[in-house]
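FORM 7B: Structural annotation worksheet

SECTION A. Query
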Amino acid sequence: MMSSCHTHQLTNPHLCGVPVALAAGFCRAALTTTDEMAVDRHGLIHGGFVFGLADYAAMLAVNHPNVALGAAEVKFLKPVKTGDALVAEAFLDPGDGKKRRVQVSVTRGEDTVFEGTFICFILERHVLS
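SECTION B. Predicted structure
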């Protein structure tokens, strides 16, 4: 089920996760949180790392070389701590055109810790071109 990755190829797997399943309109990515991601002595992980995993999975679900994030509506449902194994699943909603909607959930075991809708745009050329 692992197809070829056409976007975000230089993403650091220690910061944003690693794809473990990739198919047309779908991505599953995994990230294990580390001490470097913690914001306090309790081991609470900064939400930006959870968002980064979800965003990465969304980009890979679109899987176009010129995909860019335009907006996101997200909910952080449960705290994440150091050493947690997270899995993001991203599903591209049916449709075509340059504006694409991706539904993403992040789980830790049986618990959903994050949900979001990502609005992605497929651009004619790279966003920095």
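SECTION C. Observations
The mean pLDDT is 95. The beta strands are 18-23, 26-32, 67-76, 85-92, 99-108, 111-122.

SECTION D. Sign-off
Analyst initials: ____
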